[in-house]
Amino acid sequence: MKTKKRLSALFAILLVVAFAVSGTVITNTQVSAFDDIILVEDLFQDAELMEAITNDIALRYGEDIWSNLAQAHENRDQLFSVFAGNSRNQDGEEPNYPDFIGGIYFNDPGNMVLQIVNNSSGRSSINDFLREAENVIVEYVDFSQNELNAILDVLDSYRFAIDDVRPEVFNNIDWYALDTINNRVEVHLRVYNEREIARFRDTVLDSPAIYFVESVSSPVAATTLFAGQDMRHVFGGSLGYRVERGSGCNTVQGFVTTGHAGLRVGQTLPFGTVRWWQWSGQVDAAFIETNSNVNLSNTLANNAGWIVTNVPTSFAVGDIVAKLGGTTGYTTGRVTRANVEGAGVTGQVQTDVNADFGDSGGIVIAFVPRDPPRQPWTAGIVQAVHVNHNGHTIPNTMIFCRADRINAAGGLTRF
């Protein structure tokens, strides 16, 4: 299938350009003191750097990119107001699309592309919008957004199903995603051939809206795993910190993550096997023994620095903490409650750190002020966030499960 050009996520571009323009390369040898680390948020306070980033974006995508994107966001908001009666339009969340909408994306020049399903009914409801909106490109496609989301729902149901329900061929899937630009669902197969594709269609789902790709580069296929690494394509969460389990010749190594993301003992993942799991008492965690060809790092996945193996055994309101997770990245804050119940477990620590669904299991670090320079100790993993009555995340309410209690319950040792 011919793939159309797409506009890269601007934040990703900004992040790459920020380090490239600044010439800042952070390595373990440069972080003998945590004060030497240049944090990403500090880079974006540099006026000269931000000007260089802005100029680079304009060079890549044209001088009109910023004004086009501003207009594209305005167009999308206006269209969403037309769909407001389709529910899910609370707290800024996107509304449900009508069945004649295939999808919405912004192209390389920054203009909004509106996909409309061929030969569909109901399109007259957006005629006024199309007449009044500026720089909206209409593209005709085969499948609706709702059809594609239904396919993802089926795949998700198999991803989290127990082994005797999930078809064996599903284990050949590396990852899958909604490809809005090409109006399809893409499925990446580890073993890619006509036989495996036919097995998938026979036992999982046969739909013309699915296309298959040989997985030569997977989001989780790296030989090195990092603290806080995004694993939402695998189990709906993030990695925490590395540990050992057992003793002597029976010692195995792996990573701690959350227990509530659908994992179970014996489950095999692309990089290891779940060996221990608990979601009760004061612990919500799992231990994944990693395969022999996987290296484990104490470096944060966003390259913001390293963490030490020390584990705090107490927390006070006002302690400074941070977390790294797959959904909201690296965020910092303070402890607000040292002992709370969260999502079915007790003895958790509440903070004003920002987090969201998918950050669960991500590393939480505590900046211990004693023994200068201040060092980032291993505090625990993201466990929960507060939600409102509509089920939406309330910002800056992250709760974490303590590493000392996880390690004691699972027979784990930080290293």
Fold and architecture overview:
By secondary structure, the protein is α+β, with helices and mostly antiparallel strands. Among the domains are: about 145-215, GMP Synthetase, Chain A, domain 3, CATH 3.30.300; about 225-415, Trypsin-like serine proteases (Thrombin, subunit H, Beta Barrel). The chain has 8 helices and 21 strands. Strands 8, 9, 10, 11, 12, 13 and 21 form a 7-stranded antiparallel beta sheet that branches. A 6-stranded antiparallel β-barrel has the order 15-16-17-20-19-18. A 3-stranded mixed beta sheet has the order 1-2-3. Helix 1 crosses helix 3.
Give the arrangement of secondary structure elements.
Blueprint: H1 10-22, H2 40-43, H3 47-61, H4 65-82, E1 101-106, E2 112-117, H5 127-132, E3 136-141, H6 145-159, E4 173-179, E5 184-189, H7 194-203, E6 210-214, E7 224-227, E8 230-231, E9 237-245, E10 252-257, E11 268-269, E12 272-280, E13 283-290, E14 295-300, E15 320-325, E16 329-342, E17 345-351, E18 363-368, E19 375-384, E20 399-402, H8 403-410, E21 412-414
Parallel strand pairs: 2-3, 5-6, 7-14
Antiparallel strand pairs: 1-2, 4-5, 8-9, 9-10, 9-21, 10-13, 11-12, 12-13, 15-16, 15-18, 16-17, 17-20, 18-19, 19-20
Helix pairs in contact: 1-3
